[in-house]
What we know:
The mean pLDDT is 96. By secondary structure, the protein is an alpha+beta fold. Helix 1 packs across helix 2 (24-31) and helix 2 (24-31) crosses helix 3 (35-47). The protein starts with 6 loop residues before the first helix and ends in a 13-residue tail after the last strand. It is elongated and about 55 Å long. The chain folds into 2 domains: 7-47, Orthogonal Bundle (Arc Repressor Mutant, subunit A), CATH 1.10.10.10; 61-140, Lrp/AsnC effector binding domain/regulation of amino acid metabolism (RAM) domain (Alpha-Beta Plaits, 2-Layer Sandwich), CATH 3.30.70.920. It is 39% helix and 18% strand. The protein has helices at 7-18, 24-31, 35-47, 80-92, 117-130, and strands at residues 67-74, 96-101, 108-114, 135-140. A 4-stranded antiparallel β-sheet has the order 2-3-1-4.
Amino acid sequence: MAARIDALDRKILAELQEDASQSLDEIARKVGSSKTPVWNRIRKLREAGVIGKQTAILDPEALGFDACFFVLIRTSEHEAEWQEKFLATLRARPEVLEAHRLAGDIDYILKVRVENARAYDRFYQALISEVKIHNVTALLSMEELKSTTALPL
């Protein structure tokens, strides 16, 4: 169930999505409020689970992770035991930035960030040695056109 938030909450959340390292004073000034009410709203939004953990967004290419692959997985295995092992394998692989179970012809899609094609092959070999997979298709992203963590408030 979606949390009930008002226009001021939305402004505060938009500011936090833009830059969560801003001071309370900066956020309050930008949203047209004062520090204490903004702090109270942020605290309530955290308690309600609207705001999760705060992290730093790193530039993957600046750190040598030049290759982004989208990995399409089809499996003939759908038992709970296989799914648990697959999920554990994905969680143990730091290269996997996102993993989604899909409706349609493809069962799963992974977003994998690695240094290069050779590093992707090492990831792929490790993955298929851990869990039985019917078919894997890897798509190399040639250019990232848009990437955001901001929700459309």
